[in-house]
Amino acid sequence: MEFRLLMLLSMATALAACSRGFQPRDYANPEALFQATLIEFQKKKWDNAQLGFERLTSDLSSRDPLLAPAYFYLALTHERKKEFLLAAQAFERVTDGFPDDTLAPMAMLGTGRSYQNLWRRPSLDPENGQKAASILRAMLSSYPDAKETEDAKRRITQLEEWFAQKDFETGVHYIKVRRAIDPAIIYFKDVVTTYPATKAARMSWLRLHELYTKIRWKDDAAETCTAMWKAYPGDPEVALACGAAPKDTAPPVVRDTTAVKADTATAAAPQPAILSPVAFARPAPNPVP
User: Fold this and answer.
1) Mean pLDDT calculated for residue range 34-54
2) Where are the domains of the chain?
3) Is the pLDDT of residue 282 over 60?
4) CATH no. of 30-147
5) What CATH code is assigned to 160-245?
6) What are phi and psi of 288, to 5 degrees?
7) pTM here?
8) At a CB cut-off of 8 Å and minimum separation 6, what does 89 contact?
9) Environment class of residue 16 by beta-carbon count within 10 Å: exposed (0-12), middle (13-18) or buried (19+)?
């Protein structure tokens, strides 16, 4: 009986040891914990990675060189778990506390990306999308030479597509549901004025022409045709609405948006290069698109 009890106690101890898993307190110093937590991140053990990086951000002093990368990787961990608001907050700790750090442009891009992912579709409240666009534009201003600027520009273009789409759909709603022409015209004009290079701009011009024709505003209808002939030469719907363009109508230079994908809710985040688990003075993660 005593032997059996000892065996059961031994088995329980072994199982407990196996179930302990990753424990931040097992590491003697912050450097060792950082290295071990990076390994957990590399293994995609997001809960363990979050545990380790949160411990580091709590324990490290404000002058410790590990603090900025700890917040940065904590943000990436939240992002992998689709905890986008927490990710944005952690990225902001890097840009607010360490604006001159080499991680700052990547973190600012990450903040914008996180808010962008919180705006799941154009029909929802665009507040998070507006935050994303504002942060991404600020990043272009603050770090104009950073390699992340191209990604930021692409994301701003994607967001503008959604802003335009939302305004266009609101205008359509006023026509179909409320039978209200004046507010619909306001929304369509906002699209063509604020987001002229988007897909929704073309549809808004056609809707404006349709409405102006319906309410017999002949001069305004003629102006929409002139604008469409210039912006969309050879477009069959424009030709159907307005007829053939005059020969002296030269098309303007329009930004190409044909390759833009409007679906930003699942926009992929760059994958950070994993630091080698060896002794180091200062980590320098380098996300790769």
Assistant:
1) 96
2) 30-147, 160-245
3) no
4) 1.25.40.10
5) 1.25.40.10
6) -115, 125
7) 0.79
8) 75
9) exposed
